[in-house]
């Protein structure tokens, strides 16, 4: 089963991988300063790991600045760690801090690892950028040893819905990154030949003093709008004023809300 066969993900719905790699490479130095949500979500995923024998080798898939590579190294001190990311700039930033034994530039849909070579694949908030999630699951199964675990967090549709709705009120164009529906994650995991142990979505709501703070954080994370067909050029002042006015209607006591719909999945390779 593929996402296109599910009828839920049009071709070209995600940005070109080269653009993703370049955007996150540029954000390497600023990423950790605004990554509180990413650390919380990754921490939740670590907590969700099932009771398991310590792996002899683990893979941090979409390792970014290496925060969770270091956490995995602390949790499994005898294991060999592999940090893999599509953004070379992230790996350059992560390498001096250690954690993993190997730092590898690679693609989650085409892992440069041998079959059955790792006991744990851990991936936090990276796989939403992969067009072929069925391919990611297939590759995870290929590189896992029998009894190995694939634990991931990702984003699904409804993420940044407040920003999307506010832009829709202005011009109806694609200003906010699109993410696959939860139903697609469920269907593909069930078809993956990996046994789902857990799969759920938990919303995380952040609050910002103003729209500028939100857009600054998205840019510092490297996660600003990378949609195909996104508007080119600078946004005019009149449209920005209209966007601010639309978003201000959603203001809560704590500030402007920005909701992330976070998917957590834990799957096991039986044989």
Structure in words:
- With 271 residues, this protein is an alpha/beta fold.
- It has a single domain (3-159, 178-206, 259-268), classed as Rossmann fold, CATH 3.40.50.150.
- Helix content is 37%, strand content 23%.
- The protein has 11 helices and 7 strands.
- The chain has helices spanning 3-6, 17-26, 28-31, 36-48, 67-75, 88-94, 133-143, 161-170, 182-190, 211-221, 237-248, and strands spanning 57-61, 80-85, 102-105, 118-124, 144-155, 195-208, 256-268.
- Strand 4 (118-124), helix 7 and strand 5 (144-155) form a beta-alpha-beta unit.
- The chain is globular.
- The two termini are 21 Å apart.
- Mean pLDDT is 88; it is low at 5-12 and 229-234.
- The CATH topology name reads Rossmann fold
Shape: globular
- Range of strand content: 15-25%
The count of DSSP E runs of length 2 or more, i.e. the number of strands, is 7
Largest sheet: 7 strands, mixed
As for the number of domains, it is 1
CATH class value = Alpha Beta
Q: In the CATH classification, which architecture applies? A: 3-Layer(aba) Sandwich
Name given to the CATH homologous superfamily: Vaccinia Virus protein VP39
**What fraction, in percent, of the residue positions are helical?**
25-40%
* Helix run count: 11
Quick check: average pLDDT? 88
Backbone structural class:
alpha/beta
- SSE order, as H and E? HHHHEHEHEEHEHHEHHE
Q: How big is the Rg?
A: 19 Å
Please give the alpha-carbon distance between the first and last residues: 21 Å
Weakly predicted, low-confidence segments? 5-12, 229-234
Largest sheet, spatial ordering of strands: 3-2-1-4-5-7-6
